[in-house]
Specification:
By secondary structure, the chain is mainly alpha-helical. It has eight helices and no strands.
């Protein structure tokens, strides 16, 4: 029942709320990479306080879920990214690109109620904002291969409409 509630709650969450949550989650993941001794809870709270962020409660909850899930599943997420990347070892990717990919790969593999197209489009938009000029195409290519592999394995249950 709890997961059904999450699906219903997420489906009522607007694009702007999720986009803000993803941007916040990406920035917290980057902060955790720079200061790996911080806990996820500390990083979420300190980043929000340091930058005086006013996030919608739903955005804050979704961002926390994204950060916790990405961190908790990092080894599996990194393996998924490594399998999908061609000619790039994950440790050779830029820190920012790794964060985009980890966040979106977590969503693709663990939050199947969010449409694949939405996850990839949002990751590409974040890459445009925070990455180098070639980052959006790089992120898009790897995430597309991850999505194809997940569909082939049957891990993405159907495709959903828009957000």
């Amino acid at each position: 029942m709890a997961s059904l509630f999450r699906v219903i709650a997420r489906s009522s969450m607007g694009t702007g709320v999720r986009r803000g949550a993803r941007r916040y989650a990406l920035q917290v993941l980057y902060a955790l990479d720079v200061k790996p001794t911080a806990s996820v809870a500390e990083a979420l709270a300190s980043y929000r306080e340091a930058f005086d962020l006013e996030l919608d409660e739903r955005a804050g909850e979704f961002a926390a879920e994204l950060v916790r899930g990405t961190v908790a599943n990092r080894a599996a997420v990194d393996e998924t990214i490594q399998q999908a990347s061609r000619n790039w070892r994950i440790d050779r990717m830029s820190r920012v690109d790794r964060k985009h990919l980890r966040l979106a790969a977590f969503e693709l593999g663990h939050l199947p109620e969010i449409p694949t197209k939405v996850v990839i489009n949002e990751a590409v938009e974040l890459a445009k904002r925070f990455g180098a000029a070639e980052a959006p195409a790089f992120v898009n290519g790897i995430l597309d291969r991850i999505a194809q592999a997940l569909r082939a394995e049957g891990e993405r249950v159907g495709e959903h409409g828009g957000e």
